[in-house]
Amino acid sequence: MESILYLEDGSIYKGKAFGKIGTTVGELVFNTSMTGYQEILTDPSYAGQIINMTYPLIGNYGVNNLENESSKIHAKGFIVKNISNQAFNYMSEKNIDDMLKGMDIVGIYGVDTRSITKKIRNSGVLKCVISSENLSIDELKNILDKTEIKDDYMKKVSTKEIINIPGDGLRVALIDFGVKQNIINNLKQRECDITIFPYNASYEEIMSINPDGVLLSNGPGDPKEVKEAIETSKKLIKNIPTMGICLGHQIIALAVGANTYKMKYGHRGGNHGVYDIERDRSFITSQNHGYAVDANSIKDKEFIVTHINLNDNTVEGMRHKNLPVFSVQYHPEGSPGPQDSSYIFDKFISMLGGEK
C-alpha cells in the first residue's frame, strides 16, 4: 500500500506502508544506530517523535519480548529505507511489521532516509505527518498545521504509582520520567532495593523510604516542563546522594539555577563519542536527547563539567564540587549501543557507600 511523508517545510516523500494503516503526526528526528530498532521504538524518551533510521535495513533479526525497554512503543511513527520481515535470529518471535501493527504504530519504508537526515541536519527538527490513508497534500498540510507538538511527554510516560523492586543491597529511589528497563536492570544487577516514584513525587514521599540515594531517570521532552521535579530536586541534592541520567541530568542543572536549551537536531544513536575528563579516556556512547545543559550557565553553580561530546563539545556530564551529586547526558546503560560506560552505575553505588 502506498504511503506518504509530508514535512512542515513542504517536502514530500512517497513510499510504502507498514505497521498500522493510518495517519500520524510528530516531531521528526533521526537515529544513527545500526542495530537496536526494538529498544529505540520502546524507549519512552521517543514519546511524541517520528524516528527516521539512517541505517538502511531494519528488521533483519526480528523482534522478541526480552529486549523491550518498556511495555509499548512510545514513538509516533517509524521511517526506514528498507524493511526485512524475514528474521535471521533464533530469538525472534515476530517481525517488525507485526510489532508496529500490534501496537498501532504507522510506518513508511522505501523513502530516501539519507535525504531526510540531511534535511534535519540543515533545518533542525521538523514537524511531519505520515499517512497511508490516501489523503491529499492539502489535507496533510491541514492536519500538520492543526497539530501542536507538546514537550511534556514525561508526565504521560511516567509511572502513576509507586513500585518497589526488592533487593538485598542499597535502597535507591528512582524518579521515573520515562525510565528505560536497562537502567532498572543495572540497578538490579548491583542488588539494589529499588523504589520507582512518579515524576511529581514530593520530597517527603521520596524520603519516606529512607533511601541511600536517588536516581533521576531519562525521559522525553523539555526539562523545563517538569517544574515539580525541579523543585523537589533542589531539596534532594542538598540532602541525599543523587545521580541524573539524560533528562535527569538536565533537571539537576535547572535545580541549581543553570539553564538548558533545545538543540538543533539533538543526539540520537549508539555511536557518539564522549570524553571523560577526569579519567582522561574517550568512550563510544548511546544517546537520545534533544536538549542540553548550557555550559556557561553552570560555571558559577558549584558544578564542574566532567564529560564533553567529541562532536560538538556539548556538556555530557557534570558533578558538584562538594556534594555527592553527579549526572551524565548520555545513556550508560546502552540498549541499544555500547555498554562501555556502565561504570557510571558502579560510581553511583560507590558514592552511596556500597561496593562495585
UniProtKB/TrEMBL annotation:
It catalyses: L-glutamine + H2O = L-glutamate + NH4(+); hydrogencarbonate + L-glutamine + 2 ATP + H2O = carbamoyl phosphate + L-glutamate + 2 ADP + phosphate + 2 H(+). GO terms for biological process: 'de novo' pyrimidine nucleobase biosynthetic process; 'de novo' UMP biosynthetic process; glutamine metabolic process; L-arginine biosynthetic process. GO terms for molecular function: ATP binding; carbamoyl-phosphate synthase (glutamine-hydrolyzing) activity; glutaminase activity. The keyword Zinc does not apply. SMART domains: CPSase_sm_chain. Transmembrane segments: none annotated. Residues 1-170 are annotated as: CPSase. Keywords: Amino-acid biosynthesis, Arginine biosynthesis, ATP-binding, Glutamine amidotransferase, Ligase, Nucleotide-binding, Pyrimidine biosynthesis. L-glutamine binds at residues 45, 219, 221, 247, 250, 288, 290-291. This is Carbamoyl phosphate synthase small chain. It comes from Tepidibacter formicigenes DSM 15518. The lineage of its organism: Bacteria, Bacillati, Bacillota, Clostridia, Peptostreptococcales. The gene is carA.
